[in-house]
From TrEMBL:
<feature type="binding site">
    <location>
        <position position="188"/>
    </location>
    <ligand>
        <name>[Ni-Fe-S] cluster</name>
    </ligand>
</feature>
<dbReference type="InterPro" id="IPR045822">
    <property type="entry name" value="ACS_CODH_B_C"/>
</dbReference>
<feature type="binding site">
    <location>
        <position position="277"/>
    </location>
    <ligand>
        <name>[Ni-Fe-S] cluster</name>
    </ligand>
</feature>
<keyword id="KW-0533">Nickel</keyword>
<comment type="similarity">
    <text>Belongs to the CdhC family.</text>
</comment>
<dbReference type="InterPro" id="IPR038571">
    <property type="entry name" value="CO_DH/Ac-CoA_synth_bsu_3_sf"/>
</dbReference>
<dbReference type="InterPro" id="IPR004461">
    <property type="entry name" value="CO_DH/Ac-CoA_synth_bsu"/>
</dbReference>
<dbReference type="GO" id="GO:0043885">
    <property type="term" value="F:anaerobic carbon-monoxide dehydrogenase activity"/>
</dbReference>
<feature type="domain" description="CO dehydrogenase/acetyl-CoA synthase complex beta subunit C-terminal">
    <location>
        <begin position="167"/>
        <end position="397"/>
    </location>
</feature>
<dbReference type="GO" id="GO:0051536">
    <property type="term" value="F:iron-sulfur cluster binding"/>
</dbReference>
<dbReference type="InterPro" id="IPR011254">
    <property type="entry name" value="Prismane-like_sf"/>
</dbReference>
<keyword id="KW-0479">Metal-binding</keyword>
<feature type="binding site">
    <location>
        <position position="191"/>
    </location>
    <ligand>
        <name>[Ni-Fe-S] cluster</name>
    </ligand>
</feature>
<keyword id="KW-0411">Iron-sulfur</keyword>
<dbReference type="GO" id="GO:0005506">
    <property type="term" value="F:iron ion binding"/>
</dbReference>
<dbReference type="GO" id="GO:0016407">
    <property type="term" value="F:acetyltransferase activity"/>
</dbReference>
<comment type="subunit">
    <text>Monomer. The ACDS complex is made up of alpha, epsilon, beta, gamma and delta chains with a probable stoichiometry of (alpha(2)epsilon(2))(4)-beta(8)-(gamma(1)delta(1))(8).</text>
</comment>
Length: 468
């Protein structure tokens, strides 16, 4: 079937990582532009595979190129509503191709081709052909398919702009409904290949955390293949309509995650937040010193107010873990009226990158918009606090209730001995020095002890300057 493709094509290559050392080129990703798009189109020519722009043989090792994957499909039973779900499979199917790595989705894609693949004679045209075969195999309702790979900057720019319009139209449609309007939600297990204890719960108000699948997409997918990885979940009894807790959702989640998670609040980062696989567009994270919540997306390359970048934070709360104080989410969920409603919604949000904030104009309540700090205003906890005071952010009331004065925050990580505070619960003088959603400690005999939601206290903190 793949006889004219010079590399192996099989699910066993999913999970292959192509590091910089054995990378020939990078395609799309944070240093360039790119997108993937599946569309139902009755005018296509079946089996038409092409590359518009430079092929791998015309590229330079180590460089980064723009990249578009345009997939057009046709079939009697194909509905437009299925486009999003079929498109989401591009990630897995690209990764079946040995020597080709695909991350993320929509306009966030980030791909690499290995040097070994190039040496075997692999071309981008082979990727297009492999996708043509794989999509027809995975979705028998696809009767005809054509795949176009774009690598010319101008073409990719135009393609990405068009894709944005289509993503926006899909997202907008999902805003027609809210959680109360439906009796069923949907579960998605597509990411269990790498996050075995993760199940997404997709509701009208909570678009999947990858941002690529909404409630309508799930409905169409479950109708097409009720035994597939996207399936109906009867809501059952509403246990808490503010937190977003439903009896049957809890039951199904326990069943599908081998009991690892048995309770989920759809609209909160506290206690039982929605688990995160690793495909999330953004992470909501609790900032204890401000009793507020920050948001960071995967395009943000700087440090968050927690002192770590998105990549480190994602590593700590992904893989299907339920980590209190953190939850992966889609940017579209931030447009929902139920966005973290149990935590205070936007009145609890204290920081986010400016790029996200500007994309949410009209969705963040007008009276809150200017009160939320961005990376352009501040990134350290102290500076954010000053900003919040200056803007009279409602979080100030919560900060006041924390019982700390300004100096507590200002001195927390200083070298001053005065920072040692009384920890009532332990009855000794201890100071919190770090928190970690998950921390592993190797022990003898091959045993590993894992601390979840660890708070590390020390009697004394000694900061030493290393000798150069
Ligand atoms: S992130 Fe969730 S909805 Fe998106 S593909 Fe993965 S499991 Fe499905």
């Amino acid at each position: 079937m793949f006889s004219d493709i010079p590399v192996d094509v099989s699910p066993m290559h999913e999970g292959e990582r192509i590091r910089a050392a054995n990378m020939f080129v990078e395609l799309a990703g944070p240093k360039s532009i790119g997108a993937e798009l599946v569309q139902v189109d009755d005018s296509i020519t079946d089996g038409k595979f092409e590359v518009i722009g430079p092929e791998l043989s015309e590229m330079t090792k180590g460089e980064v190129y723009p990249f578009g994957i345009k997939i057009d499909i046709k079939g009697e039973k194909l509905e437009k509503e299925l486009e999003g779900v079929i498109e989401r499979r591009t990630h897995d199917l690209c990764n079946y191709v040995q020597g080709f790595m695909h991350l993320n989705q929509r306009d966030q894609i980030w791909c690499r081709v290995s040097t070994e693949a190039l040496d075997s004679g692999f071309k981008l045209l082979d990727l297009a052909k492999a996708l043509g075969i794989l999509f027809k195999e995975e979705f028998p309702i696809i009767e005809e398919i054509s795949v176009t790979i774009l690598t010319n900057e101008e073409d990719v720019k135009e393609f990405v702009a068009g894709a944005h319009d289509i993503y926006a139209a899909r997202d907008e449609r999902a805003r027609e409904l809210s959680d109360e309007d439906v009796d069923v939600f949907y579960g998605c297990l597509m990411c269990q290949s790498f996050a075995p204890t993760h199940m997404c719960v997709v509701t009208p108000d909570r678009t999947a955390l990858c941002g690529a699948i909404n409630w309508f997409d799930c409905r169409a997918s479950a109708k097409m293949d009720p035994d597939g990885s996207i399936f109906e979940i009867e809501k059952g009894e509403v246990l808490d309509d503010v937190k977003g807790e439903y009896s049957n959702v809890n039951e199904v989640i326990a069943q599908k995650t081998q009991g690892e998670t048995d309770k989920v609040y759809l609209h909160s980062v506290f206690e039982y937040p929605h688990t995160s696989c690793g495909c999330f567009e953004a992470v909501a994270f609790y900032i204890p010193e401000l009793d507020g919540i920050g948001i960071v997306d995967r395009d943000f390359s700087g440090e968050t107010p927690l002192g770590i970048p998105f990549s480190s934070m994602a590593g700590q709360c992904s893989g299907g873990k339920q980590v209190e104080g953190f939850t992966g989410l889609s940017l579209e969920y931030m447009r929902s009226p139920k966005f973290l409603q149990a935590d205070g919604a936007y009145e609890r949000i204290v920081w986010m990158p400016n790029s996200i904030k500007s994309s949410l104009e009209g969705f963040i309540p007008d009276d809150m918009f200017d009160k939320i700090a961005t990376d352009e205003d501040a990134t350290s906890v102290n500076d954010i606090k000053e900003f919040l005071k200056d803007k009279d952010h409602p979080i100030l009331e919560r900060i006041a209730n924390l019982g700390t004065d300004d100096d507590d925050v200002d001195d927390e990580y200083s070298e001053d001995e005065d920072l040692v505070s009384q920890d009532e619960t332990m009855g000794q003088e201890f100071v919190p020095v770090a928190t970690a959603p998950e921390m592993a400690m190797p022990m003898s005999g091959g045993v590993k002890v894992i601390f979840k939601n660890a708070k590390i206290y020390a009697e004394k903190v000694i900061i030493k300057k290393s000798k150069k």
